[in-house]
Amino acid sequence: MHETFVSLGYKLIDDAWRAHGRLTYIHDDDADRQYLGSLGRTIRVAGWVSSPDQLRTFRHPTTNEIIEIEPGGSETNGHFLHLMKPNQSPTGC
Hints:
It contains 3 helices and 6 strands. It is of the alpha+beta class. It has a domain at 2-65. Strands 1-2-6-5-4-3 form a 6-stranded antiparallel β-sheet. It is globular. The mean pLDDT is 90.
């Protein structure tokens, strides 16, 4: 998925895959409804599906990995994308 994210304009900012089962990317665009729809269509080819019960979240039914989209804060343009192993969260809790 790394190559796909990079091709979509994401930049890897935190590689904690081995330590915490999480990669964090940043993107300059706002994660509005249109953007999320486009992202969903792009990653659907790789088997990802929108989570029916969590906003801005995609799940892979085979690997149980999770993609969460987090809007950027007041000091950040764009948004964050967290790729996580099951039972992980962006804060590590």
